């Protein structure tokens, strides 16, 4: 299916460029061919998936999950994304275009939990089922349903783990966060503090920096934190790229053995890093499950008219090879078998 | 020779319509028409009044920015700060009206004034020190971006008074729903197309872009003209801020992050030369529409959004190539 679409696209792009050079005939010939291709998919249930970006592996995996579920149930999936994390206007345009294309339902990972609401409401008013994936809108009932990991819980798990692992030692914590005002980052951060048993502003948190979830920025952030407080011994990271950046910075100072790094996401690279001992523990999430369950909910709405509702927890598990007493965890063999990306 | 009557009458002064069909804009316009024809054939939903109304709504914010950007690029400058200035303006309008005690109209005037102020500052730095526009506006991009996040407290401003979102509301027109904001954006293009093509001020702008030295020797006060252009562009960004708020219904500190590059894309696709002195705001409208039509049409076809970026990139390179080749020919 996607091969057909791509071929059509390349053909159309080529035709258009040639058309710009006044070879109008070529464009017409190719155009009518494209129409046949699109027509063959016209009868199936159309579902849209709108992610925050096109490039983050988490969303790439989410797309794969939705694509696979779409093939199995005979639905047609179209995807769109913002240009950057936080691109609300881009997501609004994607919703409008999908509604115009006649989708039955839209799966969306909202970049801005509040600002996206009016556009979602317009789509729902036209009978489109809208399901939030990964992170909720604010308020949560802005969408028909939510299929997501409990990001707070993901944070709590690594917070509890770190607390137990640091028992008897004085913790000097660095938090490598996402970006201001983004719900996922805030929830994980808050969860970590709660799991560790401290409040925001606690003196044991000696450094907090934003990384955008980026490895290079994570490294810079850690370097700066170490400059500020060389005695840091616990590092909370928003995701594993940031954790690996922190690891690189710590290794440069020869500190990689005696600093505890904990993270969230459970991507395959990240889980492998847990196995290699670079990251002590991570909270693994399941974007494939979110996407496939969400897609199936829209297909069943199209077939039976039953709307999905409420919050469906798609699960989170602590992955570590250094388990702590009293903390539930899976090992990296399980983690690698269930990782994404 | 009486210079008092029609001092520029002897210069070739193409009207807006004639300029649209002359070399720089003819290509983009053909590309737009072809793209529309292509998507009309490949999808059932493209060719409808409702869909065209949608595309105009989607491109009007970047389109408005592109009007200001065109003014700057016509002088061989560039404005990297436009998206960030707009974002700051939108937060100023949203916050003062929603969380302060200021009436919506005053908030709007305040936002327009702030954006004009940024433009004026850009112009002064470019002309008086002088500094390259690229550097000045790169700096201003960061200043405006930071101020937006500081002033907004990283919070999206919701529950705006109706007067601020009025331009986003629709009214029926010929069987489809059109937003008032779309009309304002189109009017903006019309006004500037007229000013540039049919007033002496417009001729001065083109003269300045073609050769600042020749313009100066001909008695054009180039310093004042340049500074005025930057301030005017800022005012237009303020209007874009209002359009943005009305479209999304919120004040969003994250907004506009790539809009500076998107506006440059629209201007370049529209056939305005990055080397100054050639082009038109109507071309920029065509450029913005090309991007909007591709985004909409490919989505209707079910093509993933990353291909829109790919195609836009190819088109930009193609547009600059055409500009370069036609420049060589005219010399």
Q: Can you count the helices of chain A? A: 12
Tell me the helix content of chain A. 40-55%
State the end-to-end CA separation of chain B. 30 Å
- Radius of gyration of chain B in whole Å, from Cα? 20 Å
Which secondary-structure class do the elements of chain A indicate? Answer: alpha/beta
Strand content of chain B: under 5%
Q: What's the mean pLDDT score of chain A?
A: 86
Rg of chain A, alpha carbons: 22 Å
Number of helices of chain B: 14
SSE order of chain A: HHEHEHEHEEHEHEHEHEHEHEEH
Provide the spatial order of strands within the biggest beta sheet of chain A.
Answer: 2-1-3-4-5-11
In short:
The complex is a heterodimer of chains A (341) and B (331). Helix content of chain A is 48%, strand content 17%.
Could you explain the architecture of this structure?
The complex is a heterodimer of chains A (341) and B (331). Chain A is α/β, with parallel strands linked by helices and 341 residues long. In chain A, 48% of the residues lie in helices and 17% in strands. Chain A has 12 helices and 12 strands. In chain A, β1 (46-51), α3 (57-73) and β2 form a beta-alpha-beta unit. In chain A, α1 (2-20) runs antiparallel to α2, α6 (151-165) packs parallel to α7 and α9 (240-252) packs across α10 (268-275). Chain A starts with a helix and ends with a helix. The model of chain A is unreliable at 1-42 (pLDDT under 50). Chain B is mainly alpha-helical. Chain B is built from 14 helices and 2 strands, in the order αααααααββααααααα. Chain B has helices at residues 16-21, 23-42, 49-74, 82-98, 104-128, 133-152, 162-165, 180-198, 200-210, 212-217, 222-248, 259-269, 281-301, 306-330, and strands spanning 170-173, 176-179. Chain B has a two-stranded antiparallel sheet with strand order 1-2. In chain B, α4 runs antiparallel to α5 (104-128). Mean pLDDT of chain B is 89; it is low at 1-13. Classes of the chains: A alpha/beta (341), B mainly alpha (331). At the A-B interface, α1, α2, β2 and α4 of A face α2, α3, α11, α13 and α14 of B.
């Amino acid at each position: 299916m996607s091969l057909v679409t791509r071929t059509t696209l390349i053909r159309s792009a080529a035709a258009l460029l040639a058309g710009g050079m006044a070879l109008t005939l070529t464009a017409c010939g190719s155009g009518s061919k494209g129409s046949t291709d699109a027509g063959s998919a016209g009868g199936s249930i159309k579902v849209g998936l709108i992610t925050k970006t096109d490039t983050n592996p988490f969303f790439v995996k989410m797309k794969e999950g939705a694509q696979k579920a779409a093939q199995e149930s005979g639905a047609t999936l179209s995807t769109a994304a913002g240009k950057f994390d936080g691109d609300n206007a881009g997501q609004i345009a994607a919703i409008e275009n999908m509604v115009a294309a006649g989708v039955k339902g839209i799966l969306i990972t909202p970049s801005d939990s509040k600002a996206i609401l009016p556009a979602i409401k317009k789509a729902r008013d036209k009978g489109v089922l809208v399901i939030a994936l990964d992170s909720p809108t604010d308020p949560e009932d802005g969408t028909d349903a939510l299929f997501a990991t409990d990001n707070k819980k993901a944070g709590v798990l690594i917070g509890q783990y770190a607390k137990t692992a640091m028992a008897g030692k004085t913790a000097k914590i660095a938090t490598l966060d996402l970006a201001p005002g983004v719900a996922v980052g805030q929830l994980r951060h808050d969860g970590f503090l709660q799991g560790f048993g401290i409040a925001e502003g606690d003196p044991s948190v000696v450094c907090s920096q934003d990384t955008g979830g980026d490895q290079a920025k994570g490294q810079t952030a850690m370097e700066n934190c170490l400059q500020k407080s060389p005695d840091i011994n616990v590092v909370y990271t928003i995701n594993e790229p940031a954790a690996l950046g922190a690891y690189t910075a710590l290794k440069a100072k020869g500190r990689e053995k005696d600093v505890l790094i904990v993270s969230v996401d459970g991507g395959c690279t990240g889980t492998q890093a847990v196995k290699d001992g670079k990251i002590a523990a991570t909270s693994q999430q399941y974007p494939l499950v979110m996407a496939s369950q969400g897609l199936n909910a829209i297909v069943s709405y199209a077939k039976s008219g039953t709307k999905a509702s409420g919050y469906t927890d798609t699960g989170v598990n602590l992955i570590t090879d250094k388990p702590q007493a009293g903390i539930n965890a899976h090992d990296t063999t399980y983690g690698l078998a269930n990782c994404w990306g | 020779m009486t210079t008092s009557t029609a001092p520029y009458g002897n210069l070739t002064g193409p009207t807006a319509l004639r300029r649209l069909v002359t070399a720089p804009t003819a290509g983009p316009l053909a590309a737009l028409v072809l793209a529309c024809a292509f998507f009309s054939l490949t999808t059932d939903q493209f060719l409808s009044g409702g869909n065209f109304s949608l595309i105009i709504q989607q491109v009007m914010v970047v389109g408005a920015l592109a009007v200001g950007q065109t003014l700057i690029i016509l002088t061989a400058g560039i404005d990297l700060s436009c998206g960030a200035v707009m974002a700051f303006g939108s937060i100023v309008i949203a916050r003062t009206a929603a969380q302060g005690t200021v009436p919506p109209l005053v908030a709007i005037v305040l936002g327009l004034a702030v954006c004009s102020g940024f433009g004026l500052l850009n112009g002064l730095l470019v002309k008086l020190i002088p500094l390259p526009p690229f550097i000045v506006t790169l700096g201003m991009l960061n200043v405006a971006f930071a101020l937006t996040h500081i002033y907004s407290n990283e919070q999206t401003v919701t529950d705006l008074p109706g007067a601020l979102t009025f331009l986003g509301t629709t009214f029926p027109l010929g069987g489809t729903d059109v937003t008032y904001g779309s009309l304002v954006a189109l009017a903006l293009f019309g006004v500037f197309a007229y000013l540039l093509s049919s007033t002496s001020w417009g001729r001065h702008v083109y003269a300045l872009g073609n050769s600042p030295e020749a313009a100066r020797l001909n008695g054009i006060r180039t310093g004042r003209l340049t500074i005025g252009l930057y301030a005017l562009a800022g005012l237009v960004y303020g209007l874009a801020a209002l359009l943005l708020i009305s479209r999304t219904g919120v004040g969003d500190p994250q907004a506009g992050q790539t809009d500076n590059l998107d506006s440059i894309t629209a201007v370049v696709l529209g056939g305005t030369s990055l080397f100054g002195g050639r082009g038109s705001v109507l071309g920029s409208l065509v450029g913005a529409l090309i991007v909007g039509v591709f985004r909409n049409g490919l989505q209707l076809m079910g093509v993933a959004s990353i291909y829109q970026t790919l195609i836009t990139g190819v088109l930009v390179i193609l547009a600059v190539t055409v500009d370069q080749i036609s420049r060589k020919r005219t010399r």
